[in-house]
Amino acid sequence: MSEAVSTQSVAESRDAPATTSDDDVRTEMRNYSAFDQELTHRALNLRMLMRLLRWAKPYKLTLITSSILITLVSALSVLMPIVHSRVVIDTILVPVHAPARFQDFGVVDAYQWLLALTEWHPLTIALAMSVAMFLITSLMSIAQQLSLTSGALKTLRDLRVDLFTSLERKPASFYDHVGVGRVMTRITNDVENLFNLITSFVQHTGDFVPFIFVVAICFTFDFELTLVGMMIIPLAAIATVTFRWVMREIFRRIRDSVSQLNQYMQEDLMGIEVVQLSGREEYNISEYRKLNQENRRQEFRAINWEVIYESFNTSLTSFASAGVLWFGGGKVVQEEISLGMLYLFMEFLNRMVAPIMGLGYFFNVLFRSMASGERIFQALDWDEQIHEPEKPATLPERLNGAVEFRNLNFAYAGSDQILKDVSFSIEPGEKLAIVGATGSGKSTIIRLLARSYDFDDNMIFVDDIDVNQIRTNDLRRRIGVVMQDFHIFSGTILDNIALSNPNVSRERAIWASRLVNAHRFIEALPNGYETELAERGHNLSQGQQQLLAFARVLAADPEILVLDEATSSIDTGTELVIQEALHNLTIGRTSIIIAHRLQTIQECDRVLVLHQGEVRELGTHEELLEKQGIYYTLHQLQFQDSATASQLTGDPDEIEAERRRRWVEMNPDAESEPFGNDSMGGSGFIGRPGGSGTRPTGV
Question: Which end of the chain, N or C, is less packed with Cβ atoms under 10 Å?
Answer without folding.
Answer: C
